[in-house]
Amino acid sequence: MTAVQSSTPTPKRALSRHYLLTGLCGVVVAGLLGWHMLGLSATPDNKARNHNAITVGVGQATRQDVPLSLTALGTVTAANTATVHSRVDGLLVKINFREGEQVKAGQVLAELDPRPFMATVAQQEGQLQRDQALLRNAQRDLDRYQKLLPAVSRQQVESQQALVEQYQGTVRLDQGQLDSARLQLEYSRITAPISGTVGLRQVDVGNLVKSTDTTGLVVITQTSPIHVVFAIPESSLGNVLAALPSPAGSNQAALAVEARDRDDRHLLAQGKLLAIDNQINSTTGTVNLKAEFDNRTAQLFPNQFVNVHLALGQRHDALVIPTEAIQLGQPGHYVYAVQADNTVRMTPVKIGPAANGKTIIEAGLEPGEQVVTQGVDKLRNGSAIRIGQLPGAAVDQTADLHTGKGSHRHQPAGATASTSAAVQSE
Question: Is residue 66 a contact partner of residue 399, using CB atoms and an 8 Å limit?
Answer without folding.
Answer: no
